[in-house]
Amino acid sequence: MNMRSPKLPFVLAKQTNSPMSVSISPEQPEKIYLPRSSESKELQKIRHTASHVMAMAVQKLFPQAQVTIGPWIENGFYYDFDNPEPFTEKDLKAIQKEMVKIINRKLPVIREEINREEATNRIKEINEPYKLEILEGITEPITIYHLGQEWWDLCAGPHLENTSDLNPKAIELESVAGAYWRGDETKAQLQRIYATAWETPEQLAEYKRRKEEALRRDHRKLGKELGLFIFSDEVGPGLPLWTPKGTVLRSTLENFLQQEQVKGGYLPVVTPHIGRVELFKISGHWQKYKEDLFPMMGETEDEGFVLKAMNCPFHVQIYKSELRSYRELPMRLAEFGTVYRYEQSGELGGLTRVRGFTQDDAHLFVTPEQLDSEFLKVVDLIFSVIKRLKLDNNFKARLSFRDQTSDKYIGSDEAWEKAQGAIRRAVEKLGMAHFEGIGEAAFYGPKLDFIVRDALDREWQLGTVQVDYNLPERFDLEYVADDGTRKRPVMIHRAPFGSLERLIGILIEEYAGDFPLWLAPVQVRLLPVGDAQRDFTVEVASIMRSHGIRVEADNSNERLGKLIRNAEKDKIPVMAVVGAKEVEANSLSIRTRASGELGSIPITEVIEKLIDAIANYGNF
């Protein structure tokens, strides 16, 4: 039965069998440690078994419900169902109650191996067509798991031996969402029930506490409260609009990286937001990436244009505009380039997954002899960025290599081996802890990706460095070598931030909106006690601005206590109270979020301290 429900009251998302990165961590790491799914075989068994118990409970209460896929994920599991009516909160409570009954019945969990013909016959007997589709993708031996003699499903395991091995007080159904079957918008709309499962009730309680902390830090909530960005239905989903304060935050990050790039010999460039289809055909993006591009503008591909989804083909054209000499290399072209990708609506999530975003993109054109040293310089730059943003406490490096069995990659085996070898040499020389991610490479080349873990214990890819022998070949790039011959350069693709939007979303949650002084959109707020101090306050604000300090004066008619509370709520790093004594002494009464009350300080000294702290990325 392939039911469709056009009135599902929730967001539709692509279906995935991969673990989802939704874990949450406490602010104090010494508190209860929640083992990760990947680290605990016992948790995998618990979540596999609990998911089957949930599916059995659903089909007992809703006999028309069709079971599809139900994997374990980080922090829990989910199951997708095709049910004629949407599940409600009341239904979830009833399902959880039924799960407790099943657990308490102490049903044995029995593994059985069967052949394809037998599996097909059994599925047809219970009239579950989704299982037939799943069966097509399973190689023998085919395993099914039974809960007693009453319920079974296709599954590779692992499982507990008995339902009684589950602790019902450590399991909780969390929410219901929508999903397309096989992630295909043209197929049935299913209902996905998310749940969490742990070994003990204490772990469940800690997880829920962490989840509350995640809500407190949610960048969408804080972004609105702090006035950093908005989304508009009239503009469209996944297209953030940056307010003045948010724009200052973006500009500060851009300026920081631009200063680092100038030191490293990068040359700024600007490229357009659209390009010919033919450009992306040459690069291979049209063939490999077409479904993620916005629809073509124009009637034919020969004359068509598309919004750019990446900057590299444009930077290639700048390099190719002249015949280059080896003396010009390495050439490092850098751009804060906005790109557009047609993400599915269900995959969008605040700033961390958008349709229009800005990359701190650079492409280095180097000789083969320069590759290793330039690669190491890029890694050093990314290290400095991660450290400056205070994300260096917990990060790891992934060698994102190609899967040789896949046909999604372009280029020769020789080119791939050379590129992957360069990355291996770099991490070995640096003594960097790393792991390999086979199949994670870009279609044109391998990558070294930097994975950071944020305050909510989620993993994000930030910096990336890619070695590319293929695009220089496809675009026929050359340089004149010292012996007068024409040779092919190697490209390094590099983005320390990755997506500026995603980085800001991560930083909002990492700092809980309480940005360090150098990064805060408003660094100082002046708080006049009364009308008599307003002119003095305006004059001080003007002097501070002339020194590059981001300052504002609160000239509302609120009492001082309310002015201070408002500044605290807005997470202003430095508050300066201006009363009659301060005007008389040409001073400011300073209160900071980092150090508390500092007392009355002469204005000249305040400005000097602020300039020094901002320049050195410190606190006042």
| Rg computed from alpha carbons, rounded to a whole number of angstroms | 29 Å
List low-confidence stretches.
1-35
Structural class: alpha+beta
DSSP strand count: 29
From the spread of the alpha carbons, the general shape counts as globular
CATH class of the largest domain: Alpha Beta
User: What is the CA-CA span between the terminal residues?
Assistant: 66 Å
Our count of helices gives 18
Q: Mean of residue pLDDT? A: 88
**Superfamily at the CATH H level of the largest domain?**
Bira Bifunctional Protein, Domain 2
> How much of the residues is beta strand, in percent?
15-25%
Q: Please list the strands of the largest sheet in the order they lie side by side.
A: 12-16-17-24-21-20-18-19
The major pleated sheet works out as: 8 strands, mixed
Query: The CATH topology of the largest domain is what?
Result: BirA Bifunctional Protein, domain 2
How many domain modules?
A: 3
The percent range for helix content is 25-40%
Question: What is the strand and helix layout of this fold?
Answer:
Layout: E1 12-13, H1 41-61, E2 66-67, E3 72-73, E4 76-82, H2 89-104, E5 109-114, H3 116-126, H4 129-136, E6 142-147, E7 151-154, E8 171-180, E9 189-197, H5 201-217, H6 219-225, E10 229-230, E11 241-242, H7 244-263, E12 267-268, E13 274-276, H8 277-283, H9 285-289, E14 305-307, H10 312-320, E15 324-325, E16 331-340, E17 356-366, H11 371-388, E18 395-401, H12 413-430, E19 434-438, E20 447-453, E21 459-468, H13 470-474, E22 479-480, E23 486-487, E24 490-495, H14 500-510, E25 524-528, H15 534-546, E26 551-553, H16 560-569, E27 574-578, H17 580-585, E28 587-592, E29 596-602, H18 603-615
Parallel strand pairs: 1-8, 12-16, 15-22, 18-19, 25-26, 25-27
Antiparallel strand pairs: 2-4, 3-4, 4-9, 5-6, 6-7, 8-9, 10-11, 13-14, 16-17, 17-24, 18-20, 20-21, 21-24, 22-23, 27-28, 28-29
Helix pairs in contact: 1-2, 3-4, 6-14, 11-12
